[in-house]
């Protein structure tokens, strides 16, 4: 027995309605979530370098972005802001930090004390949040150590050259003194011989 045309239209309408409802629910759930991407979770840097802690996020509405810093010296919130507004930067990072609307921050002239964990939290207006971590290792510049070694070796070479020059001068003086003494001895001997002949 074939279904009546009105029943098949009714079933098709219900199926399309359910499909539209599912798509709308999926889109609503997707738009309310927060996603966060960190392209470089570990960064190695040297002293005095400017470092970009790069992130990308997506969420519904304007989020609140917060960065915290944790290291052997303790933990602290370093900055908090909403894109398009002025950032609230901690006193320890004033004039050393720049924020971007995509959530990234730029640290100027890092030092060894800046090594540690940088945790970003992106919170949307409905309260959902996502966090991620970037590990920063800051080390001393190797060429400064090599520069010190080179300067020290140059100093040692200069001292060695000075000592060699002094030894050469002393040797010359000693040689001249010995020649003069030898000549004096010879002249004294000749005088004694002459005196012996005269007597």
UniProtKB/TrEMBL annotation:
GO cellular component assignments: axon; dendrite; plasma membrane
Major site of localization recorded for this protein: membrane
UniProt-annotated location(s): Cell membrane; Cell projection, Axon; Cell projection, Dendrite
Superkingdom field: Eukaryota
Pfam families the UniProt entry points to: Receptor_2B4
Domain Immunoglobulin: 40-139
SMART domains: IG
Signal peptide per UniProt: 1-28
SUPFAM superfamilies, per database record: Immunoglobulin (SSF48726)
TM ranges: 146-170
Membrane topology type: Single-pass type I membrane protein
Entry keyword set: Cell membrane, Cell projection, Developmental protein, Glycoprotein, Membrane, Signal, Transmembrane, Transmembrane helix
Single GO BP term: positive regulation of excitatory synapse assembly
Subunit description: Can homooligomerize through cis interactions within the same cell membrane.
Function: Cell adhesion-like membrane protein of the central nervous system (CNS) which modulates both the position and complexity of central neurons by altering their membrane morphology and dynamics. Involved in the formation of neuronal dendrites and protrusions including dendritic filopodia. In synaptogenesis, regulates synapse formation by altering dendritic spine morphology and actin distribution. Promotes formation of unstable neuronal spines such as thin and branched types. Regulates neuronal morphogenesis and migration during cortical development in the brain.
PANTHER family, per database record: SIGNALING LYMPHOCYTIC ACTIVATION MOLECULE, V-SET AND TRANSMEMBRANE DOMAIN-CONTAINING PROTEIN 5
Name of protein: V-set and transmembrane domain-containing protein 5
